[in-house]
């Protein structure tokens, strides 16, 4: 077995590989760019080598620089993680020339399966059902429009070397095909150094289901069930689970056997994933094969007990698989939520900055495993697993140069319902401050009836949130619980304030018991009766809730029991109350005396400033291109400029007809959030 492995990646996947290598007694080498000097993967590794400037195309995807790090440290093998060089055949060839093992498939498999065009041709020749499309290379936008018309809209424009949603666009018209072709080429070139593009039919109402395969160099191959990855935004997965709530055993077996047959046809040896589009009748179509470890691999590990990274390392070391298909048992259910540095209240645009607070929920093991990496029987009944794969820490920075993913929060339960319940609690207890993030949105998805029913498609987000995400409106039953909890917490805070030292004699402040709690435009008149064990909150309709908690003023997370239910909320202080966040809702909760509530109704509302004649930068990013000049008349929907952030191009469009009166930025400028790009008459 190897003594030292270099991880040619960064962030959470680098940390993930380091954990398994450490478990196996293998030393690790991290590589890092200028932006990642203080990163968690650098701190975790036994050694770390600086490889260049912050942009990935000047550091992480420069093969020569990675090879220099390998030579300098004497690493015997390289794990590429996902993204960057993980599916780069030239990198695998360079490693082979140096006598360094690649913890991934053979070069031939990377070339044939890693390239989306070639892989679809091979799949067709092997008799695998594929989505209609044009497999050849496309020269320019005019040809893209012509091909799109031949296939029939809508079409998917995709980067041949793409992955993770990069270099992908859906076009419903000639104009969108032309525009999407150029944006896809640009993103593909920046992210993968390969701007080749192909087009295929976009299947409406599809489910995205993928099969995890594991093959060795001795001709053995198995599949480890499937992953449901249908909840996506901009073709980037957000929520994954295993197994799929949609598949039956016969379909699972058919997809698995086909995936393994395809892998064996190209001499595959490592962990890999065969992705399918599945329609409502359970017909499945080959989409692509990812010749690497998938981002969502933890959910497969949680339901099978197989450490995929360990298996990849052992296969790269020449070992045969110790697991047969009969050994693979799907145990329970696992769900993964991807925590992104994206602000859901700003259209999920990237958010960068310092993590002033980062407190993930405590990890909990699901049950004992065999040394072979298999379950040692079922996990204890009712015990829930919580796993958080991350590459950040409190006080660290989220950079504009890389993918916006902060962490992958996973839960396991004996049933799907139990796994969802565990995820809800884990999300409620996950504290992130300092940047915009999608925790509220993830909480909303976990409570959405379509997700709960397991009937989602890849159109889930765009169909259920067509106007974007603006938070969750909680039902009155939940509002009553939060109102009761807030009143009880407010009383605790008020009592502390009355006990402040240095107060004047004969000026003792009394804390009353009658309060008016206002949240989500609803007011509750209630009375708080406290004792040593908690508070009894009585509403004016005669109902009452018992509130118990060890919360103290200043705590940013409160775990309470309200009535018969547990409640976990994030607590922030605002004037006259709290900012409460729970289950996707972000609430301003005002706790007032009856007289204060009476006067509050007379206060005028603050009017937001008028920005209707300004184009503001919606995210920190780089100006790639300006599409208009001063004096131009623009129409609603017209492209105004392109901003690049976190490897994604974002086209900003005119919201209404107008004339450009001033332009305050130029191509190449770095802009902050809400910086004025241009003004209109």
From TrEMBL:
InterPro entries: ATP-grasp (IPR011761), BC-like_N (IPR005481), Biotin_BS (IPR001882), Biotin_carboxylase_complex (IPR050856), Biotin_carboxylation_dom (IPR011764), Biotin_COase_C (IPR005482), Biotin_lipoyl (IPR000089), CPAse_ATP-bd (IPR005479). Pathway: Metabolic intermediate metabolism; propanoyl-CoA degradation; succinyl-CoA from propanoyl-CoA: step 1/3. Residues 605-681 form the Lipoyl-binding domain. Residues 120-317 form the ATP-grasp domain. GO terms for molecular function: ATP binding; metal ion binding; propionyl-CoA carboxylase activity. The keyword Manganese applies. It holds the Pfam family Biotin_lipoyl. This is propionyl-CoA carboxylase. It comes from Phaeobacter piscinae. The gene is pccA.
